[in-house]
Amino acid sequence: MYKIRVYKKDLDYTYCLGVFPVVELLQKMSKVVDQVLLSSEGAQNGGVDEIMQLCEDNQIPYSINDHKIKLLAPKENTYAIAVLDKYQMQLNAEKKHLVLVEPRNMGNLGTIIRTMVAFGFYDLAIIRPAADIFDPKVISSTMGALFQARIQYYNSLSDYVEKHGTVSGKKRELYTFTIDDAKDIREVDFKAKGKDENYALVFGNEGAGLSAEDAALGTRVMIPQVGDVDSLNLSIAVGVVLWETVRK
Amino acid sequence: MYKIRVYKKDLDYTYCLGVFPVVELLQKMSKVVDQVLLSSEGAQNGGVDEIMQLCEDNQIPYSINDHKIKLLAPKENTYAIAVLDKYQMQLNAEKKHLVLVEPRNMGNLGTIIRTMVAFGFYDLAIIRPAADIFDPKVISSTMGALFQARIQYYNSLSDYVEKHGTVSGKKRELYTFTIDDAKDIREVDFKAKGKDENYALVFGNEGAGLSAEDAALGTRVMIPQVGDVDSLNLSIAVGVVLWETVRK
Q1: What is the distance in angstroms between the Cα of B223 and the nearest Cα belonging to chain A?
Q2: pLDDT in tens, A93-102
Q3: DSSP three-state, residue B181
Q4: Could you give the CA distance from residue A231 to residue B141 in angstroms, rounded to a whole number?
Q5: B168 φψ region: left (φ > 0), alpha (ψ -120 to 50), beta (else)
Q6: Which chain B residues are Cβ-neighbours of A141 within 8 angstroms?
Q7: What is the pLDDT of residues B13-54, one digit of tens each?
Q8: Does the structure show a pLDDT above 70 at A37?
Q9: Angle ∠(A165,A144,A139) on CA atoms, nearest 5
Q10: Which pLDDT belongs to residue B75?
Q11: For residue range A101-138, what is the model confidence (pLDDT) as tens digits?
Q12: Mind listing the pLDDT tens digit for each residue in A140-178?
């Protein structure tokens, strides 16, 4: 079993904190779990019972260890932590993709992963430099949705396009989200006849948005705003767009 | 001028951190500003120049004070902090409202305030117990949108309904967001003829959602989800619904 220490990016393993995400992990991807730590305070929690049962079913060791839980989650009242291997994933080349260019905020990244799964997107390309999807803060804010997603890092948007610019021999439609000189999202028909349904939605980061060069790689699209706030939070913008793709 | 100390909920004043939010504050609500602190590292920043100009125009004292900035924002690289009075606001009884029941997460609350202003909602009712809108973390995540909003706390949803259940003699429509036994949001016409356009959108909190009792006070509405994640993050759900009200 791995030595339990405070998380760092260069560790080969990571931590999933909280009863709900741990249950999701054990149900969706038990094979990457090394061990589970439980808090003595969680003894009456129904979710903790479910975790113990799932550990037994999958022959995963678990133990009560308040000391290590305090070390990994000093501020919160956490009943369960799973220790898991970081694993490699590959995008499904035949599906629609979400693409985030240089996302830096871990809370936003986790919330976006949770939202994409809620709206039926399972493939996420991330352009570096970017936040670490295996950081415990990201895993927590996905609420376990991470374990249903396929996520791959690329060094540039052009690298991604080189690899995934076509789907089954047809051009993959790219929609690049930006503020200037862009089409109103209400006018985009994501399911138009004759168009590939396995498009990619491309978003820039929290600070700078997409560069003009990256935006030019696809059809420029915007979410019109009514008030005079500068822009939407990235996770909200992505949420609204994902909803638009399913609502029609 | 106020004594600069670490923020606590019972202080009569609070702090607005960051160049962009401070500019918004000085433009929208300079009369509540006590003083502005600047970092010596921000001397080359165009936004800092704008802050100094706005302070001079409004006769607000400002000073370079790296020590106090470090005290209030120990982790980040912050160029400007405004000290401001907490102020009372009143909902506009003639407008559409957003209602949050017992929101606890400060990041979510701030993001929601930013999003409502972006989509043309300016009135927010908050049902206690709830996060403190004047906590610097909330103010930061509103990106200054707080200073355009009108926000009032109530002790219960019934208290709110008692006060705002009618608009100009007509019943105010309440839409209560929930998962069970609810109407698909795509079937709701927020601008139907003969209906009051100054409706209220009511959301429960991050953990428990709306109680059955609260949900029954209005028309139950849901956002259909495709994947099998348990639910959307609260700020994403609110963002999608606010977008729905403006998109049509």
Answers
A1: 9
A2: 999 999 999 9
A3: coil
A4: 12
A5: left
A6: 233
A7: 999 999 999 999 999 999 999 999 999 998 888 999 999 999
A8: yes
A9: 80
A10: 80
A11: 999 999 999 999 999 999 999 999 999 999 999 999 99
A12: 999 999 999 999 999 999 999 999 999 988 999 999 999
A236, B239: Cβ pair inside 8 Å? yes
| Subunit contact B235:A232, Cβ cutoff 8 A | no
Three-class SS of chain A: CCCCCCCCCCCCEEEEECHHHHHHHHHHHHHHEEEEEECHHHHHCHHHHHHHHHHHHCCCCEEECHHHHHHHCCCCCCCEEEEEECCCCCCCCCCCEEEEECCCCHHHHHHHHHHHHHCCCCEEEEECCCCCCCCHHHHHHHCCHHHHCEEEEECCHHHHHHHHCEECCEECCEEEECCCCCEEHHHCCCCCCCCCCCCEEEECECCCECCHHHHCCCEEEECCCCCCCCCCCHHHHHHHHHHHHHHC
CB B134 within 8 A of CB B86: yes
Nearest-angstrom CA–CA distance, B229 and A71: 29
Residue B191's CB: how many other CB atoms inside 10 A? 10
CB-CB contact of B89 with B124 (8 Å): no
Interface mutation vs chain A, best among B24, B95, B119, most A CBs within 10 Å: B119
* Cβ contact A36:A83 at 8 Å: yes
Q: Which amino acid is at A247?
A: R
Nearest chain A residue to B240, by CA: A240
In chain B, what residues touch A231 (CB-CB under 8 Å)? 118
pLDDT class of A196 with cuts at 50, 70, 90: low
**Whole-number Cα distances in Å, A144 to A17, A45, B148:** 10, 18, 36
Within 10 Å of residue B129's Cβ, how many Cβ atoms?
Answer: 11
**Contact status, residue B118 vs residue A225, Cβ threshold 8 Å:** yes
CA A71 – CA B51 distance, rounded (Å):
42
| Tokens 């117990």 found at | B129
Match 């975790």 to its residue by tokens.
A51
Give the whole-angstrom CA distance, residue A26 versus residue A36.
10
Contact B1, B61 (CB under 8 A): yes
Q: How far apart are CA B221 and CA B176, in angstroms?
A: 6
* CA closest to A145 among chain B residues: B229
Per-residue model confidence as pLDDT tens for chain B (248 residues): 999 999 999 999 999 999 999 999 999 999 999 999 999 998 888 999 999 999 999 999 999 999 999 999 988 789 999 999 999 999 999 999 999 999 999 999 999 999 999 999 999 999 999 999 999 999 999 999 999 999 999 999 999 999 999 998 899 999 999 988 899 999 999 887 666 689 999 999 988 899 999 999 999 999 998 776 567 999 999 999 999 999 87
Please, what is the end-to-end C-alpha distance for chain B in angstroms? Answer: 49
